[in-house]
C-alpha cells in the first residue's frame, strides 16, 4: 500500500495509523480513529479535522523519536506504537518533550502507548503518565463506531483499513496449543505421522509461529551490519524453519536456521556459500558464542533453546539475540 511507505513492520503500522488518524485525509473516515482513542482514555475532546497535523518520528532534544505526534490548536497527543518489542523507550524524555514544546493552559497534552499485549510493559517501569491501550480494545472501539462513517468512507481505503485490522488481529491471536495436546505430540511424534488431521493442526500452528518470528526479525534485521535474507520452509516430518542467510562477505555466507519442532525452538549455524564447517566454527568462536555440534559435524547448535509454548515475544527476543551475537565484531 502507498500509505505504508517502509518495509519494516512496525514502521508500516505507524505509517498506516498516521494516514487514518489524519481526519481530513482522503480515506473519508474523518476522526473515527482519534475519537476511538480518546474514548478509551476517558477524555472528551472536540476534534476539528481542519487544524490537525499528524507527525511521524518526532525527535526530542536528546535524539529519541516519538512514533506519532498529533498536534492541533486544542490538544496534542503523543503515541508510542509497540508491536512485539518490550517497552524500553525513554518515556520520561518523551513526556518532557511533549509538555515543554506543546503544553499550555488551553491545550492539554495526552499520551498513549498502543501495543499488542500489556505484558510488553514491565510492571516496575514508570510510564510517566502514558496510558496503555491494546490493539484489541482499540479496534473493538473502532468497529463499534464505524457504522456512521460508511456513507463518507471511500474505497479502496475501507478495504485497506479492514485488512490492517485483520492483520493485527492475526498477530494477536495466540497460537500456543494446550499443554495436554502438546505433551501428546511430544510423546507420540512417530505415531502421529499416521494421524493426518492431528498432524495438520500441529503443522499449521508451527507455521504460524515461524511466520510471526519472521515478522519480528524482519523489523530489526535491516539495522544489523550485514545484509540478511530470510524465508520459511519445512521438512516432511514435524520440523518448521525460519532461515536467515547472513552475507558476511562475497566469499562466505553464514546460514542461521531457527528450527521449531514439538519439543521446542533451537537455532543452528552452517555455511551457505563457499567455506566449510571450520569457517563457521572460527566465526562463532571469535564471538565467544556457546554451541553444540551435531553428530554429522556439519551443523552447530546454539546452546540456548526454548520450549514450544514460549510466547512469541520470548522467541523474538531470543532470535534477535542470536543474530546480533553473530553479526557483532569479534571479541578481542
Account of the 3D structure:
- The protein has 332 residues and is of the alpha+beta class.
- The chain folds into 2 domains: 164 residues, no CATH class; 149 residues, no CATH class.
- It has 10 helices and 12 strands.
- The strands form 2 sheets. Strands 6, 7, 8, 9, 10, 11 and 12 form a 7-stranded antiparallel beta sheet that branches. It has a 5-stranded mixed beta sheet with strand order 1-2-3-4-5, with helices on both faces.
- A hairpin with a 2-residue loop joins strand 8 and strand 9.
- Helix 2 crosses helix 4 and helix 8 packs across helix 10.
Strand content: 15-25%
Quick one: overall form?
A: globular
- The total of beta strands comes to 12
- Helicity, in percent? 25-40%
> What structural category do the secondary elements indicate?
alpha+beta
Number of domains: 2
Mean pLDDT: 87
| Order of H and E elements | HHEEEHEEHHHHHEEEEHEEEH
Please work out how many helical segments DSSP would assign.
Answer: 10
Cα-atom radius of gyration: 23 Å
**What's the N-to-C terminus distance?**
46 Å
Largest sheet entry: 7 strands, antiparallel
**Uncertain stretches of 5 or more adjacent residues:** 1-8
